[in-house]
Amino acid sequence: MNYNNPVIKMLETTANMIIVSMLWLLFSVPVITVIPASAALYHTSVHIIFGEGRGIGVVKDFFSSFRDNLRSGVILSMITVLAVLIIAEGLWTGYQIWRLGIPGMLYMILGIVITFAFICTWIHVPPVLSRFDAPVLSILRISAYFGLRHPFRSILFAVLFAALVWMCDLVPLAIVIVPALFTDLLRPYLERDMNNFIAEQGLGTNTTEEESEEETGEEEVSAVDLDRQLSEKRKGKR
Protein backbone atom coordinates (compact mmCIF):
# COMPACT_ATOMS: atom_id res chain seq x y z
CA MET A 1 0.00 0.00 0.00
CA ASN A 2 1.27 3.46 -0.92
CA TYR A 3 1.05 5.50 2.30
CA ASN A 4 2.01 8.66 0.40
CA ASN A 5 -1.21 8.46 -1.57
CA PRO A 6 -3.28 11.64 -0.89
CA VAL A 7 -6.40 9.56 -0.22
CA ILE A 8 -4.56 7.39 2.32
CA LYS A 9 -3.14 10.49 4.00
CA MET A 10 -6.59 12.07 4.19
CA LEU A 11 -8.09 8.91 5.70
CA GLU A 12 -5.22 8.71 8.21
CA THR A 13 -5.68 12.34 9.21
CA THR A 14 -9.44 11.92 9.55
CA ALA A 15 -9.00 8.78 11.68
CA ASN A 16 -6.52 10.54 13.95
CA MET A 17 -8.85 13.54 14.30
CA ILE A 18 -11.66 11.21 15.35
CA ILE A 19 -9.43 9.42 17.86
CA VAL A 20 -8.15 12.60 19.49
CA SER A 21 -11.66 14.11 19.55
CA MET A 22 -13.02 11.04 21.33
CA LEU A 23 -10.15 11.16 23.81
CA TRP A 24 -10.92 14.82 24.46
CA LEU A 25 -14.59 14.01 25.10
CA LEU A 26 -13.70 11.17 27.45
CA PHE A 27 -11.15 13.15 29.47
CA SER A 28 -13.42 16.22 29.65
CA VAL A 29 -16.23 14.34 31.38
CA PRO A 30 -15.05 15.24 34.93
CA VAL A 31 -15.33 18.95 33.92
CA ILE A 32 -12.35 19.96 36.06
CA THR A 33 -10.11 18.24 33.51
CA VAL A 34 -11.51 20.04 30.47
CA ILE A 35 -8.56 22.47 30.26
CA PRO A 36 -5.78 19.84 30.39
CA ALA A 37 -7.80 17.71 27.96
CA SER A 38 -8.10 20.70 25.62
CA ALA A 39 -4.37 21.40 25.94
CA ALA A 40 -3.65 17.77 25.05
CA LEU A 41 -6.03 18.03 22.10
CA TYR A 42 -4.24 21.10 20.82
CA HIS A 43 -0.76 19.66 21.35
CA THR A 44 -1.58 16.39 19.61
CA SER A 45 -3.31 18.14 16.70
CA VAL A 46 -0.46 20.57 16.13
CA HIS A 47 2.55 18.30 16.63
CA ILE A 48 1.28 14.87 15.62
CA ILE A 49 -1.75 15.05 13.30
CA PHE A 50 -0.71 18.13 11.31
CA GLY A 51 2.91 18.62 12.41
CA GLU A 52 6.37 17.10 12.22
CA GLY A 53 5.34 14.12 14.33
CA ARG A 54 2.91 12.90 11.71
CA GLY A 55 2.64 9.14 11.86
CA ILE A 56 3.41 8.85 15.58
CA GLY A 57 0.59 7.49 17.72
CA VAL A 58 -1.86 10.19 18.75
CA VAL A 59 -2.96 8.26 21.84
CA LYS A 60 0.52 8.24 23.36
CA ASP A 61 1.03 11.96 22.71
CA PHE A 62 -2.41 12.85 24.07
CA PHE A 63 -1.80 10.93 27.31
CA SER A 64 1.66 12.45 27.70
CA SER A 65 0.45 16.01 27.17
CA PHE A 66 -2.57 15.48 29.42
CA ARG A 67 -0.37 14.17 32.22
CA ASP A 68 2.13 17.02 31.89
CA ASN A 69 -0.59 19.68 32.02
CA LEU A 70 -2.89 18.01 34.55
CA ARG A 71 -1.98 19.93 37.69
CA SER A 72 -2.07 23.42 36.21
CA GLY A 73 -4.95 22.45 33.95
CA VAL A 74 -7.20 21.36 36.83
CA ILE A 75 -6.58 24.67 38.61
CA LEU A 76 -7.37 26.56 35.41
CA SER A 77 -10.51 24.46 34.89
CA MET A 78 -11.71 25.29 38.40
CA ILE A 79 -11.01 28.97 37.80
CA THR A 80 -12.93 28.73 34.52
CA VAL A 81 -15.98 27.11 36.13
CA LEU A 82 -16.00 29.66 38.95
CA ALA A 83 -15.62 32.54 36.48
CA VAL A 84 -18.47 31.23 34.31
CA LEU A 85 -20.79 30.99 37.33
CA ILE A 86 -19.93 34.50 38.52
CA ILE A 87 -20.24 36.03 35.04
CA ALA A 88 -23.54 34.24 34.36
CA GLU A 89 -24.96 35.48 37.66
CA GLY A 90 -23.72 39.00 36.92
CA LEU A 91 -25.25 39.04 33.44
CA TRP A 92 -28.56 37.73 34.76
CA THR A 93 -28.61 40.44 37.43
CA GLY A 94 -27.70 43.06 34.84
CA TYR A 95 -30.50 41.87 32.58
CA GLN A 96 -32.96 42.33 35.44
CA ILE A 97 -31.88 45.87 36.35
CA TRP A 98 -30.60 47.47 33.14
CA ARG A 99 -33.92 49.25 32.50
CA LEU A 100 -34.03 50.77 35.98
CA GLY A 101 -31.69 53.64 35.19
CA ILE A 102 -28.15 54.63 34.33
CA PRO A 103 -26.53 52.57 37.14
CA GLY A 104 -28.29 49.46 35.84
CA MET A 105 -27.16 50.17 32.29
CA LEU A 106 -23.57 50.72 33.42
CA TYR A 107 -23.69 47.47 35.39
CA MET A 108 -24.88 45.60 32.31
CA ILE A 109 -22.21 47.21 30.10
CA LEU A 110 -19.53 46.27 32.62
CA GLY A 111 -20.80 42.69 32.59
CA ILE A 112 -20.62 42.56 28.80
CA VAL A 113 -17.05 43.93 28.80
CA ILE A 114 -15.96 41.36 31.40
CA THR A 115 -17.62 38.59 29.39
CA PHE A 116 -15.85 39.77 26.25
CA ALA A 117 -12.45 39.75 28.00
CA PHE A 118 -13.15 36.32 29.49
CA ILE A 119 -14.05 34.76 26.14
CA CYS A 120 -10.98 36.25 24.44
CA THR A 121 -8.76 34.88 27.20
CA TRP A 122 -10.43 31.50 27.63
CA ILE A 123 -10.07 30.52 23.96
CA HIS A 124 -6.29 30.88 24.25
CA VAL A 125 -5.75 29.12 27.60
CA PRO A 126 -5.46 25.50 26.34
CA PRO A 127 -3.03 26.33 23.48
CA VAL A 128 -0.88 28.46 25.78
CA LEU A 129 -0.90 25.76 28.48
CA SER A 130 0.14 23.15 25.91
CA ARG A 131 3.07 25.27 24.72
CA PHE A 132 4.50 27.04 27.78
CA ASP A 133 5.77 25.68 31.07
CA ALA A 134 4.70 28.53 33.34
CA PRO A 135 2.74 29.21 36.55
CA VAL A 136 -1.04 29.39 36.35
CA LEU A 137 -1.16 33.19 36.63
CA SER A 138 1.41 33.51 33.85
CA ILE A 139 -0.67 31.21 31.63
CA LEU A 140 -3.67 33.47 32.24
CA ARG A 141 -1.68 36.64 31.54
CA ILE A 142 -0.21 35.27 28.30
CA SER A 143 -3.65 34.02 27.20
CA ALA A 144 -5.18 37.44 27.92
CA TYR A 145 -2.34 39.06 25.98
CA PHE A 146 -3.01 36.94 22.89
CA GLY A 147 -6.78 37.21 23.16
CA LEU A 148 -7.06 40.95 23.76
CA ARG A 149 -4.36 41.76 21.24
CA HIS A 150 -6.68 40.42 18.52
CA PRO A 151 -10.15 40.96 20.04
CA PHE A 152 -12.18 40.73 16.85
CA ARG A 153 -10.42 37.53 15.80
CA SER A 154 -11.08 36.07 19.25
CA ILE A 155 -14.77 36.85 18.87
CA LEU A 156 -14.77 35.18 15.46
CA PHE A 157 -13.23 32.13 17.12
CA ALA A 158 -16.04 32.20 19.69
CA VAL A 159 -18.66 32.50 16.94
CA LEU A 160 -17.05 29.58 15.11
CA PHE A 161 -17.13 27.55 18.32
CA ALA A 162 -20.82 28.33 18.78
CA ALA A 163 -21.53 27.41 15.15
CA LEU A 164 -19.80 24.05 15.54
CA VAL A 165 -21.69 23.35 18.77
CA TRP A 166 -24.92 24.16 16.91
CA MET A 167 -23.86 21.79 14.13
CA CYS A 168 -23.32 19.03 16.71
CA ASP A 169 -26.83 19.70 18.00
CA LEU A 170 -28.20 19.23 14.49
CA VAL A 171 -25.96 16.27 13.66
CA PRO A 172 -24.88 14.61 16.95
CA LEU A 173 -22.45 12.29 15.17
CA ALA A 174 -20.35 15.34 14.22
CA ILE A 175 -19.08 15.49 17.81
CA VAL A 176 -16.59 12.71 16.96
CA ILE A 177 -14.53 15.09 14.82
CA VAL A 178 -15.60 18.66 15.67
CA PRO A 179 -13.12 19.18 18.57
CA ALA A 180 -10.12 18.37 16.36
CA LEU A 181 -11.63 20.33 13.46
CA PHE A 182 -12.05 23.43 15.63
CA THR A 183 -8.46 23.09 16.82
CA ASP A 184 -7.18 22.77 13.27
CA LEU A 185 -9.03 25.91 12.17
CA LEU A 186 -7.47 27.93 15.01
CA ARG A 187 -4.03 26.34 14.76
CA PRO A 188 -2.36 28.53 12.07
CA TYR A 189 -3.24 31.80 13.82
CA LEU A 190 -2.39 30.67 17.34
CA GLU A 191 0.88 29.06 16.29
CA ARG A 192 1.92 32.24 14.51
CA ASP A 193 1.15 34.34 17.57
CA MET A 194 3.00 32.02 19.94
CA ASN A 195 6.00 31.71 17.65
CA ASN A 196 6.17 35.50 17.39
CA PHE A 197 5.92 35.77 21.15
CA ILE A 198 8.74 33.26 21.61
CA ALA A 199 10.90 35.18 19.13
CA GLU A 200 10.17 38.45 20.96
CA GLN A 201 11.36 36.82 24.19
CA GLY A 202 14.68 35.91 22.59
CA LEU A 203 14.03 32.18 22.48
CA GLY A 204 14.04 31.75 18.72
CA THR A 205 17.74 31.18 18.07
CA ASN A 206 20.18 28.45 18.92
CA THR A 207 22.66 29.29 21.66
CA THR A 208 24.38 26.02 22.55
CA GLU A 209 27.40 24.50 20.85
CA GLU A 210 25.46 21.35 20.04
CA GLU A 211 22.78 23.30 18.21
CA SER A 212 25.35 25.26 16.22
CA GLU A 213 26.82 22.02 14.92
CA GLU A 214 23.57 20.77 13.41
CA GLU A 215 23.91 19.72 9.80
CA THR A 216 20.94 21.79 8.72
CA GLY A 217 22.56 25.01 9.86
CA GLU A 218 19.10 26.48 10.53
CA GLU A 219 18.75 29.09 13.25
CA GLU A 220 15.23 28.14 14.20
CA VAL A 221 14.63 25.40 16.76
CA SER A 222 11.76 22.99 17.09
CA ALA A 223 8.73 23.60 19.27
CA VAL A 224 10.05 21.05 21.75
CA ASP A 225 13.34 22.94 22.09
CA LEU A 226 11.51 26.21 22.52
CA ASP A 227 9.36 24.72 25.25
CA ARG A 228 12.49 23.45 26.98
CA GLN A 229 14.25 26.81 26.71
CA LEU A 230 11.27 28.68 28.07
CA SER A 231 10.99 26.24 30.96
CA GLU A 232 14.67 26.64 31.80
CA LYS A 233 14.40 30.41 31.63
CA ARG A 234 11.47 30.45 34.03
CA LYS A 235 13.08 27.98 36.44
CA GLY A 236 16.29 29.98 36.43
CA LYS A 237 14.43 33.01 37.77
CA ARG A 238 13.17 31.19 40.85
Main sheet makeup: none
Backbone shape: globular
Number of E-state strands = 0
Mean pLDDT across all residues, rounded?
81
Determine the N-to-C terminus distance.
53 Å
| pLDDT < 50 runs, ≥5 residues | 205-227, 233-238
Which value, in Å, is the CA radius of gyration? 20 Å
Number of helices, counting only DSSP H or I runs of 4 residues or more: 9
Helix content: over 70%
Q: H/E order of the elements?
A: HHHHHHHHH
Structural class: mainly alpha
Strand content: under 5%
What does this protein look like?
The structure is a single chain. The protein is mainly alpha-helical. It has a domain at 6-78 and 113-200. The chain is built from nine helices and no strands. The protein has helices at residues 6-28, 34-49, 58-97, 102-131, 136-149, 151-170, 178-200, 209-212, 223-236. The longest helix is centred in the first third of the chain and has 40 residues, at 58-97. It is globular, with a radius of gyration of 20 Å. The relative contact order is 0.10. The model is unreliable at 205-227 and 233-238 (pLDDT under 50).
